[in-house]
Amino acid sequence: MDGIHDLGGMQGFGPVIREQNEPVFHAEWEGAVFAMMRAARARKIFNSDEMRHAIERMDPAEYLASSYYERWLAALTRLLAEKGVVTEAETGARPANRARRRAPAAGESQAVVLDRYSTAQSSFRSSNAAPAFAVGQTVVTSNERKPGHTRLPRYARGKRGVIAAQRGTHVFPDASAHGLGDAPQPLYSVRFEAAELWGTGDVDTAAPVYLDLWESYLATVAGPGGDRG
Amino acid sequence: MDGIHDLGGMQGFGPVIREQNEPVFHAEWEGAVFAMMRAARARKIFNSDEMRHAIERMDPAEYLASSYYERWLAALTRLLAEKGVVTEAETGARPANRARRRAPAAGESQAVVLDRYSTAQSSFRSSNAAPAFAVGQTVVTSNERKPGHTRLPRYARGKRGVIAAQRGTHVFPDASAHGLGDAPQPLYSVRFEAAELWGTGDVDTAAPVYLDLWESYLATVAGPGGDRG
Amino acid sequence: MGKFHPNVDKYVVSRVRALESILLDRGILPADAVDRIVQMYESDTGPQYGARAVAKAWTNPTFKRRLLTNSTAALSELGLEYDQLIVVENTDAVHNLVVCTLCSCYPWPVLGFPPNWYKSPAYRARAVSEPRALLKELGLEVPSEREIRVWDSSSEMRYMVLPQKPDGVDGFTEERLLPLITRDSLIGVATPLPAGGA
Amino acid sequence: MGKFHPNVDKYVVSRVRALESILLDRGILPADAVDRIVQMYESDTGPQYGARAVAKAWTNPTFKRRLLTNSTAALSELGLEYDQLIVVENTDAVHNLVVCTLCSCYPWPVLGFPPNWYKSPAYRARAVSEPRALLKELGLEVPSEREIRVWDSSSEMRYMVLPQKPDGVDGFTEERLLPLITRDSLIGVATPLPAGGA
Prior knowledge:
Chain A is of the alpha+beta class. Chain A contains 7 helices and 5 strands. In chain A, helix 1 runs parallel beside helix 4 and helix 2 packs across helix 4.
């Protein structure tokens, strides 16, 4: 979807402010949201593509007004409701101060306190299908406007690029976010020249963008540079 | 600029809610903002293109969180400061309850309480230059990403359309918003097919969009349908 | 008041009052301007000119032709000097819809103040890319074979729809037709009211 | 806390507490999970693995080649099982910069938690379209003739920059190099600290 999350190239946001000695969490509730998200993911209540799409479906004004962990909280609440685990009415009705952590039983949290990365989370899938595009080939991206989750940003829609690398076969987020399974596809690193993305104005031509794009986002172009010259 | 104001085609905003028996102003302060804007415009402190650009320069999160007249207030405050009429420090420092309207002198507001439309506001300009494009001609819009004000929406950037009508010669907002005078140009009504704008997905092909575009936004395309076919 | 400004009103009101008092002091805002402007617009708002032009076009074919080809001349016959209007005609083949995606441009001289929904991000975002679905949500089903032309008001030209005349109003005078011609029908999100409906 | 949520904190905290108590009751959230996770990440965060890999690459050309061509194998030598990393090398001709415009994808296993600025709309919006100007604002001047490659993390592959080795560190051990390798230099918004600077 062409949602508010698709920020690449937008103007008007002002400077990037770096905080010195930034803490891991800025408040206790951020850590709690992080832990709850971990737990829900460990219990396989939803996957990472569903989580991203839940964030994308926030009201655009609320999205921009929210901090990172507020967005996580919104997505978590929504997905727990959509999956029938916790209704929104329950969350709203529960008295705010009821959370009392019991004394921990040794080892209890093992299933939830995950390793920092587990290969079970890998997006790679085995495949017998050969990739359709070769390194160096010019491709054009889809101009399709999808109602659901996709990982082709709006700024790179209908644009020409060159295959920079093959990245193997991966879970397809456009399917995975909608309960349609892994539907794996070859993935490519595609290089886009700045003038192709941002036009002919005051553009820094020595600043290409590389995107990882799934095979179904891409189509061949006639001739090495295509018919646009 | 590719700012938050450029909303055409964005997804995720939800339903359009119509208010029954909507009042002209929803609160007294809205009428005051409207009147102040009228007064500032009547005094020629800024023009309508500068006003639009001031709204576009709002912080994106604040833009979406604001109502229509809150945006006007933000633009008015900003422009009065930028034009050196009222500094932002003055607005902030002034006690909130100091506004006391004096008893009106008869006829005093005549210069400000404008007619609903005055031909002095017309955007038409006389010109000897013949329009470069003819009705029926296929054109392609600029892909230029401008830092300032422009009236070519992002969804119609780098797209092909057909000249539907010539609209005469008009003030050019991209100049007028930046103190660069009227810089008038021929204006055209351009028809864009939905598939050109929104791609090959689930698109309503019988829903073309017509935009009024200035000559410098447009370029010719080789052949009647252009080289893209 | 923005949806996400829980306490915005007080803050906004205090800023407005402060600015108002400064502009009064400096003579930029005449003392009676706010009251007079509010009074004027609250008493004289709405689509009077637009509706009048449509009623006349429905009953007078030569006026209709002028309205569609030279609206400035047609509107001056109604006592309105306005040179920026384009009138677009609904037919069995074409339905027209007006929007402004970049801000909220609207033909104030003929339609009065724009309603809040017209200025909402939802309308501005959706009208260009999914007009048929949006109109259906708003209660107007446009047959799939009828083209919907969306007029995105990107210049100072303004757009007004000339809706199709309802059935059963042949022989109606302009005065009888007027109440059928709603603001929403002149934007393109509704049809005029039926002959017995006003 | 959102910039425009003046009183967000209390409201958010109450929603978080309510949800936490429900998930505890249902056994989805183990009783000690929040404390253990917070403690684990607060004590063990930051770019340790990433910095270690770079220090080793600077001192060991064959490891560097593996890191650039098969990061999974290289990282497993450092005790990390991670198969999603692409390492991109800065040279005199190319500077690399990592962003995620659609959300905030970041190579957590090698760099720890992403800083807030990396997740900010401003960084996500600007890094792809005006990287050189943005880097200059952040204090890093990249010569105009040097290509800036922006890696927008659109898939589950993650990106880490292999920065250029500072001058004057020839013969340094990995341990002496480590403190020069900042998180920001591994994202591409800074260069490593100078030899005397840590």
